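[job 0412] stage=fold_complex status=start
inputs:
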Amino acid sequence: MIEITRILGHCDDPDLSARIHHAGHHGGIEYLHIPPAEAARRRFRAVTDMGSECAVMLPRDQGIFDGAVLLLEHDRAVVARLTEQHWLRLRPSDVEGAALELGYHAGNLHWRVRFDHGDLLVALDGPRETYVARLADLMDEGKVEVVGE
Amino acid sequence: MTVSTEVVGAARVGVGGPVGSGKTALVERLIPLLRGEGIDLAVITNDLVTKEDAERLRRSRLIDPERVLAVEAGACPHTVIREDPTLNIEAAERLDAQFPGLELILIESGGDNLASTFSLDLVDYWMFVIDVAGGDDIPRKRGPGIIQSDLLVINKVDLAPHVGVDLDRMVAEAREVRGGRPVVLTNCRTGDGVDGVVRAIRDAVPLGRQTGKSAGSGSR
Ligand SMILES: Nc1nc2c(ncn2[C@@H]2O[C@H](COP(=O)(O)OP(=O)(O)OP(=O)(O)O)[C@@H](O)[C@H]2O)c(=O)[nH]1
Ligand SMILES: [Mg+2]
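[job 0412] stage=fold_complex status=done
writing structure:
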């Protein structure tokens, strides 16, 4: 069991990257894959891609990020990798009413969003269908269209 | 990148769910089991405008009354566990400071609706307590509390025959909408099933509070 109680830095930090490279030669660099929605969690158990069990117990002021170095020993390193965030791309039929309604709706559902050239991108933290189901009325009325992921 | 040498405080576990589903009853059942496992424990309760639940726990003598703090949530119980959990964070920090060996803080949310969820800024893990008497269609309604919680607790299973609830179907649908994530059945009147909640917490949440300095670079 590897106990992780702090983040040592980013894997590209100059002083860390050389040591991680070195550890890679001796044993291996292990990756801990974490879904983006879970990155805010401070305490959890997880298993690296090489099967090592980790008990993560981070201070409240630290959070996991992509490339966070969680363990660095002579012959072993553990680096966090956030899994890819999938987005649902929604296009309102107009920039007045429909866009307002969609924005209100997404906020009401506490969806995490981004804006891109008139489209609303919704972070998919669960099955795509559960998000699309919430849009049924807006889509039936022709106000919103799913244009991609 | 700064390296934190701060003490890692106690683990924080949230207990949420609709009004009257049995959150305090579950906490009352959890306290002796967790303490029996040698876990150094404290509790924070959230009520709307009173300290009712905190006083109930203090009176229960299950735990040192000083280890129970109350946060008054005002009109919106979900706000203090999600949008702005500052009051609860401060209460947890106070407990961390006051009890240096503290390993686990249970945070009971005020009774709310099926949409309430905990922020991971506040807790490391959270459960949502619903009860059989609320109806077997509750899981099907897919509230965020039911879908997103780390653990779904279906309480008051003893009432199923009295309220015409098909418990097997309720559990099957709960598992389905949760994509197979854990569901535990409890009767907090008798304590049946509460050990399953303890196991779920222990399986998911590493306890213990090392300083950031001494651990992290070692393994065992
Ligand atoms: N029959 C039965 N009654 C229960 C059970 N668990 C709790 N109760 C009863 O349900 C009522 C509400 O329980 P509480 O523990 O106060 O519920 P709560 O969720 O903390 O309520 P709020 O904090 O006010 O939202 C009480 O009368 C309990 O005795 C159970 O498993 N079976
Ligand atoms: Mg209560």
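[job 0412] summary: The mean pLDDT of chain A is 93.
[job 0412] exit 0
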